[in-house]
């Protein structure tokens, strides 16, 4: 492809989103769906953030590698991301493990997910591949990172998050020199290396990599036959490039998209029940750190056609209301007090019920006089009349999943067990 000096690099790139992981720390919330397909923010899925970042950055060729319980994810992509037009050079390919290497071989690692699709990527004739994790919440302009990669001449550029040094123990951590060249890559180190000039800060990998496709293609084919390799970017390819080639760090604060009144640099791994609950409930704050109302950098998703939310009854103790909350379309809040909660589409709540800091996923139902506090309701869960959850952790733990931070997850299977004993 002919390169015009000063032209945008995003049109010459493909985004490859790794979306096959279960996300086991979300426990039963991922029993029927992969982590990237988990609902977030009232109407979106987690994967919508990586896809929207790519689209808003100007990348119009994308691939999503799926593996674990992918039906929900694939259905979402087909419904919500079906606006790409091939005649304009726009593509979104869904890439389940297709046993292209062996009829019995699924994706063995993150790098293998790309290796098994080399021929498809070749067909798009791209110059760059942007490797993304499909399970983080953030807004980022990948064009800035692509330019950083091109300017440095690196073999790989790694997106890095600046974090307090001791908190970096939970991440893959980069040691860098004064030019941001990566001199070491350590997985969850007990004593993370500090950033030059910032002894209390460290650089954590975001799982975002930019490669020239020609370089990565050769590296993947060589790694494919490498004995003892787990065929994974974080465990095999990145440490090897750091040791033998040129790996460059890109600082997230340079490409983070910030909007609204809150200028906080925002990135979240919502991989635990506590983190998932906190990130959703935080959207109800007066000035949330994540601005999902910004039309200049929208988070695209499946635009379900639905009627407006409705609030009914206006009596003492039986008033349909939502205070400091977000309520999606097709919800009926009937005589229920809802506070600091995030309610997805199709939810029904009934008279005299009380909800405090509840994340109610689509089409869940809360019946009369139920009281829920710090609860996650999975899709299509129906809470029996009068049930109280969130006041007695020991009692809740007999039937439901109570997290370390005191958040209670309720699924249909859990309610079925409760009804078998108490119904």
Query: How many strands?
Result: 29
Give the N-terminus to C-terminus distance in angstroms. Answer: 67 Å
Query: Mean pLDDT, rounded to whole units?
Result: 93
Number of helices: 10
Main sheet properties: 9 strands, mixed
Name the structural class. alpha/beta
* Helix-residue proportion: 10-25%
**What general outline do the C-alpha atoms trace?**
elongated
- Portion in strands: 25-35%
Alpha-carbon Rg, integer? 23 Å
Spans of 5+ residues with little confidence (pLDDT < 50)? none
Domain Nucleotidyl transferase: 15-284
Keywords: ATP-binding, Carbohydrate metabolism, Glycogen biosynthesis, Glycogen metabolism, Nucleotide-binding, Nucleotidyltransferase, Transferase
Function: Involved in the biosynthesis of ADP-glucose, a building block required for the elongation reactions to produce glycogen. Catalyzes the reaction between ATP and alpha-D-glucose 1-phosphate (G1P) to produce pyrophosphate and ADP-Glc.
Pathway: Glycan biosynthesis; glycogen biosynthesis
Which characteristics define this entry?
alpha/beta; 10 helices; carbohydrate metabolism; elongated; EC 2.7.7.27; nine-stranded mixed beta sheet; 423 residues; 28% strand; ATP-binding
Molecular structure report:
By secondary structure, this protein is an alpha/beta fold. The protein is 23% helix and 28% strand. It has 10 helices and 29 strands. Strands 1, 4, 5, 6, 8, 9, 10, 11 and 12 form a 9-stranded mixed beta sheet that branches. A hairpin with a 5-residue loop joins strand 28 and strand 29. The longest helix is centred in the middle third of the chain and has 12 residues, at 213-224. The protein is elongated and about 70 Å long. The chain starts with 12 loop residues before the first strand and ends with a helix.
